[in-house]
Amino acid sequence: MSQKPNAIIFGGLNTCSRALAGFLVPLEGEALVSNLRIVDKYSVVPPTTYLGSEFPQILGKPNVEYQQANLTVPAIVSSTFDPPPEQEPYSIVQIKHTCNIARLIGEEAARRNVKAYVRLQQPWYESSDKGSHSEQEDVKPYGVIGTWWHESLRILGAIEELNLVIVRIGLIYGPYIDFGLMSNVLTVAAVYGYMKKPMKSLWGPGHNAMNTIHSDDVAGGLWSAAEWMSRVGRSEAIGVAGEVIHWRNDKSKVAEVAGMPPPDKTIVVPLFNLTDDNGTTLDKAGKTMTRIFGATFEYHNFVTSAMIRFRLEDVVEDINESHVGAWAEMLTKSDPPVTKTPLSAYMDTFSLSKHTVAFSNNKIQRILGYQLKRPNMTSDVLYEIVDKWKTEGSWPSIKS
Ligand SMILES: *[C@@H]1O[C@H](CO)[C@@H](O)[C@H](O)[C@H]1NC(C)=O
């Protein structure tokens, strides 16, 4: 008899975990796992983070369980691995968190011989405009957050016996995904449509890759990686898909951070990029998103954009004043009015800065045979997302 595995999702309730849970235990149709446990710091009843209208229904299923837990406490981490009464142990783990929690969960997973520990890596990297964009490129972590997310991969890679596989995604977008740059740009595009003005980029059209991934494929790709790892095991996985995770930190930190391997230790882990086939660039995303709201995507002239970029910190507030005001007006004018939404038209300096995310998806297709469900970020795919937000009352419905 082939028993379905039990799976745990650690963290990411505010980003990708709800999509993954909905994929593993769909509202309609057969579940891929026997039991699913989701562990995070948030409360779900009452919610202390945006959950979307679908996820609470998934939590209502008999084989799905949510635990609110403080994962900085090792004894609590250990207890989250204890299976429900008279059930098989958890064999698949997905985790999203920085170093300390990643290490505690990784060590526990290794002790319990979990068959697959899949780590989702957000694209906190700056890719080069040139090159193959394969997993072999030594991409530069983005700022402090990128440095420590990157470091957590080395820490996990150093845990012997851990059946680790890393899935490094592009910029996520999808239904009920309020997190990240893409949902922010989509909201702002709607604002320009409402104001009947062109949306203008601070950056030249150039190359500016901003590779994307739909949340359905984040879920599908993580699952595909978990199945593969359960089948092949650690040494074969490293043999077939191992990549060096380069040192990208400050040497003085080694003494301060538990489990941090020194710079000269070579860390090799199975790593896959997960992006769609859309070849999303700033220009392409801007044009597709503005078009669906009847606006256009344009560029400031060279002098204006150079001036704005030079004073970015100062102009952030000016840029936002009009966005935020118009979005608030849209929410009020909506029929019925929107009283609560996780979406914001505020763009911080991160959103307004230039980002290059260029990851080839060749390897995950070749080795895992993964087939994208949402290969392109089309207008239809975006409409579907907006419609779901409208249905739950998070997005304004305005008769023009
Ligand atoms: C989690 O546990 C740590 C260690 O005991 C503690 O310092 C921290 O305040 C706790 N966090 C929460 C949110 O309770």
TrEMBL record:
* Residues annotated as domain NAD-dependent epimerase/dehydratase: 107-237
Signal sequence, renumbered to the chain: none
Q: Which InterPro entries match?
A: Epimerase_deHydtase, Lipid_A_modif_metabolic_enz, NAD(P)-bd_dom_sf
Q: Which domain of life is it from?
A: Eukaryota
Name it: NAD-P-binding protein
* Source organism (scientific name): Lactarius akahatsu
